[in-house]
Amino acid sequence: MKQVWVKVIPWQKKLVTTAIEGGADAILVEKGKTEAVHALGRIKTIAPDGDLKIDKDVIFAEIKSKEDEERVLKLTKTAIVVVTAKDWKIIPLENLVAQTNNLFAEAATVEEAKTLLGVLEKGVDGILVNTTNINELKKILDLVKKWSEKLELYSGKVTLIKPLGMGYRVCVDTCDLMEIGEGMLIGNSSASMFLVHAENIENPYVSPRPFRVNAGPVHAYIKVPGNKTKYLSELKAGDEVLIVNAKGETRTGIVGRVKVERRPLLLVEAEVDGQKVSTILQNAETIRLTTPKGKPISVVQLKPGDEVVVAMEKGGRHFGHKIEETIMEK
């Protein structure tokens, strides 16, 4: 997930409060101002005496030559580096983005921020906002907090729907509201998942709960930010999950509550180019998968041949991190 820091040098209280209200991850201030920031909200400071210390945790580097570029690459191995250059046409930012992480860059306008975030479709890891224009600051904060990499999703053809016995399933309640076509990626395997739709559909039996995804059993994987996965049983209040729509657009949601209850279950299998995808869901009318057109389809109406949205990837995972090794999950 991209981060956004705000430079408040010289001190301006309005900039700090705007940054905090807009979801900034940290504030760059002069020495001696950390306590003043903390008095306004819980947020990290970057300063010689801050939560993140300048020249130790965070290093500022201007790039003027190839030698500077090589020095930055070394520095990013142990610290976050905020880079600037008088002319990025001479020292292409692509060179740095392609070779390292822990890379931030300054932006004074929303257009500059868009460019920095989109370099090589990977972008810098964070933006340091350097403007005293409150409206521009708000625009950049909104841009960065909503920015996400697009996932490649596929259309899977349903091959099996099989009622099972009882088991413990997990409802993920977030501090967000999901729209039609949105949900979370859930699966029996970390390499293949279904887009399970949010419970935001009108129903004669129960009110819509647009903050909830009835995700699946305790053993299942869920996609979380940072191209990682977790077991549903691991989730707890305050964790981050990935909210996904049928187009592959993503955003971060915060878990507010996890409900684990014993319910009747259902096995669903599908195929994509001969590769099997499977998950287990609660056997209930309110549980839905998502069609390639972004429409919800209830598991009780599901039949072989129906097409639903799935995510596929190569390689396995070790403690939620993607790795390249032979792992078979059946």
TrEMBL record:
Key words of the record: Amino-acid biosynthesis, Aromatic amino acid biosynthesis
Source organism: Desulfofervidus auxilii
Keyword Amino-acid biosynthesis in the entry? The reply is yes
Pfam family membership, one: DHQS_2nd
3-dehydroquinate synthase C-terminal domain location: 157-330
Q: What is this protein called?
A: 3-dehydroquinate synthase
Superkingdom classification of source: Bacteria
Which PANTHER family does this chain map to?
A: 3-DEHYDROQUINATE SYNTHASE (PTHR33563:SF1), PTHR33563
Q: Which InterPro entries match?
A: DHQS, DHQS/DOIS_N, DHQS_C
**GO molecular function, one example?**
3-dehydroquinate synthase activity
Phylogenetic placement of the source organism: Bacteria, Pseudomonadati, Thermodesulfobacteriota, Candidatus Desulfofervidia, Candidatus Desulfofervidales
Record carries keyword Amino-acid biosynthesis: yes
* NCBIfam families given in the database record: PRK02290.1-5 (NF002627)
Q: Which HAMAP family does UniProt cross-reference here?
A: Arch_DHQ_synthase (MF_01244)
